[in-house]
Amino acid sequence: MVTVSFNKISFEESLAKHVVAAEKCISCGACVLTCPFGCLELTKETPTLIKECKICGICAHVCPRYLWLRADAEKFVFNRERKTDEEFGIYCKLLAIQAKDKNVLEVGQDGGGVTALLVSAFENGLIDGAIVAGHGREKPFLPFPKLATSPKEILECAGTKYTYSPNVLALADVVKQKKTSVAFVGTPCQIHAIRKMQMAGLKKYTAPIKYLIGLLCSECFTYDGLMEKHIHEKLGINLSDIKKMNIKGKMLVTTNTGTITIPLAEAKQYARESCHFCDDFSAELADISTGGLGLEGWTFTIVRTGKGEELLLKAEQTGFLNVKPVDTETNALNLLKKLSKKKREVSAVS
Ligand SMILES: Cc1cc2nc3c(=O)[nH]c(=O)nc-3n(C[C@H](O)[C@H](O)[C@H](O)COP(=O)(O)OP(=O)(O)OC[C@H]3O[C@@H](n4cnc5c(N)ncnc54)[C@H](O)[C@@H]3O)c2cc1C
Ligand code: SF4
Ligand code: SF4
Ligand code: SF4
Fold it and tell me: Looking at ligand 1, which atom is closest to the CA of residue 185?
């Protein structure tokens, strides 16, 4: 097991200079959550000091964009580094999954697999909460970190929101509500943040986390740019009328009256700056990673750890999931390899 020893460095000398000013901050909120002196606040999607920094160095140790060493994280999670032919990280199984419950399938993004895994884990007593992204609290389709504590709440949070939700911040509610076993759903960068917190031994926040479910991710968009400027102002869509958004080669925005498409090249102008530094497409450090990869009505699933396997098996055995092999899904497999490679190449030069 790799353990990080804390170097005492101030927020200004570490994250403010090398992450925030360099536009690499992904707004995960790990620094804000773990600062023991409550010195930080997430303002306009970046951490800012609201009190004098006590120079303890903890924020620097949990930030996924500061001194990030993938090899160390792989050794921590899998007890080894990936081999060169493990193009999308270490895994034990590839599958496609689909929620058996029609209500879950209907609200789920692809096959509703993530929601079905969470509901199963909850109903089977594996978890007492799930960190997911709620939506529509302040503005339509604007996500926010949510600790769901019932299948009903898990279901209400199904579906992809393509703008950022700092899900890590919901760990504060896990501690407040004294939850002991939660599943965390997040983008690959958020999974990195959790792994760094685990590696740093911050048990207060990490001990209750039982499962990490990662979402495959090419990029995330700004709410001001994609939702307000483009979809609302340019395309004239009332944001409260949106029922679902998806990406299948192009961005699809579905309302009650039909589906409007946005070419991906057009949408990409609203990608968050920090996503350009990202090297992980398929949540390579999660227990289980999930994506669409062009499948219709199924969730492409990469089982990576024993915990991921436990979550999946329980859902399958207790009738929450349909499961099928993906050996013949050549397009999806090629896309997975291509996008993983592209991310690593882009981040290597940025
Ligand atoms: C920003 C983003 C970009 C993505 N890009 C790709 C891609 O390029 N290729 C690909 O194959 N898949 C991508 N995905 C994953 C895909 O959209 C689905 O989330 C995944 O296939 C699981 O589908 P499902 O039907 O099983 O999910 P569901 O059962 O609908 O569950 C989805 C879960 O994700 C949570 N969630 C939704 N939005 C967010 C968010 N913004 N941040 C954190 N959690 C969230 C929900 O609360 C819910 O718990 C992306 C997801 C996100 C959030
Ligand atoms: S965790 Fe808080 S006190 Fe410690 S270095 Fe960071 S900002 Fe300063
Ligand atoms: S921990 Fe997260 S929010 Fe804080 S500076 Fe790093 S990337 Fe940004
Ligand atoms: S592209 Fe990378 S940095 Fe951007 S939201 Fe996705 S995982 Fe995070």
Answer: 44
Q: Give yes or no for a contact between 184 and 285, defined as CB atoms under 8 angstroms apart.
A: no
In angstroms, the CA 323 to CA 303 distance is: 12
| Ligand 3 atom with least separation from CA of 274 | 7
- Closest residue by Cα to residue 224 from 239, 210, 246: 239
Q: How remote is the CA of residue 22 from the centroid of ligand 3, in Å? A: 12
- pLDDT tens per residue, range 61-84: 999 999 988 999 999 999 999 999
Beta partners for residue 299, in sequence order: 97
pTM equals 0.97
Question: Domains of the chain (ranges plus CATH)?
Answer: 12-62 (3.30.70), 70-220+271-349 (3.40.640), 223-269 (3.10.450)
Encoded tokens for 271: 């990608």
Which of 153, 130, 134, 154 is CA-nearest to residue 145?
Answer: 134
Both tokens of 207, joined, read: 């001990």
With a cut of 50, list the residues of the chain below it in pLDDT.
Answer: 1-4
Distance of CA 169 to the CA centre of its chain: 13
Strands 299-303 and 288-291: antiparallel
Helix (H, G, I), strand (E, B) or coil at 276: helix
Q: Cα separation of 94 and 300, whole Å?
A: 8
Give the whole-angstrom CA distance, residue 222 versus residue 188.
17
DSSP-derived 3-state class of residue 188: helix
The token duo for 315 is: 């859902």
Instruction: Say whether 312 sits in a helix, a strand or coil.
Output: helix
- At which residue do the structure tokens 């949990």 appear? 62
| pLDDT of amino acid 5 | 58
Angle between helices 306-317 and 113-123 (to 10 degrees): 80
Tell me the best of 26, 101, 109 to mutate to test the pocket of ligand 1, counting ligand atoms within 8 Å of each CB and taking the most: 109
Q: What is the pLDDT of residue 1?
A: 39
8 Å CB contact between 81 and 74: yes
Residues 6+ apart with CB under 8 A from 166: 27, 28, 29, 42, 145, 190
DSSP helix/strand/coil, 86: coil
